[in-house]
Amino acid sequence: MKLLNAWKRVSLTMTSEDLVPAYFCDKCSVARAAHLIKLLDGELAFCGHHYNQHKEALDKKAYEVIELNKIEEDIPQLEKAESNGR
Ligand SMILES: [Zn+2]
């Protein structure tokens, strides 16, 4: 999945201007989480890669899955696209 590289880059260039709490993947802890999985006994965060990998198991256990990508899109943060060159 090509999107994964973009996510990693975003997490490295994250600024304090980020108002959305940063969730990082519980599996690899470097990629910014794309999905927040609400379980009865807690919550898990996964990047797109690992969410897809565990999707079947998570779907059974989770009562809610929040797509963090969608939250991100609601807040225009154009500087992310510009800061890749550094
Ligand atoms: Zn991951």
Describe this structure in words.
The protein is of the alpha+beta class. The chain has a domain at 22-70. Helix content is 41%, strand content 16%. A 3-stranded antiparallel β-sheet has the order 2-1-3. The chain binds zinc ion. Zinc ion is lined by residues 25, 27-28, 31, 46-47, 49-50.
Question: What is the number of strand segments?
Answer: 3
Residue ranges: pLDDT <50 for 5 or more in a row? Answer: none
Radius of gyration: 13 Å
Classify the helix fraction into a percent range. 40-55%
Q: Strands of the biggest beta sheet: in what spatial order?
A: 2-1-3
Order of helices and strands: HEEHEHH
How far the N terminus sits from the C terminus, by CA atoms, comes to 23 Å
**Structural class, judged by helices and strands?**
alpha+beta
| Biggest sheet features | 3 strands, antiparallel
Which geometry do the CA atoms define? globular
Brief summary of the model shown:
This protein is an alpha+beta fold and 86 residues long.
Secondary structure topology:
Blueprint: H1 3-12, E1 35-39, E2 42-46, H2 48-61, E3 64-67, H3 68-74, H4 79-82
Antiparallel strand pairs: 1-2, 1-3
Kindly list the characteristics that best describe this protein.
86 residues, alpha+beta, three-stranded antiparallel β-sheet, 4 helices, 3 strands
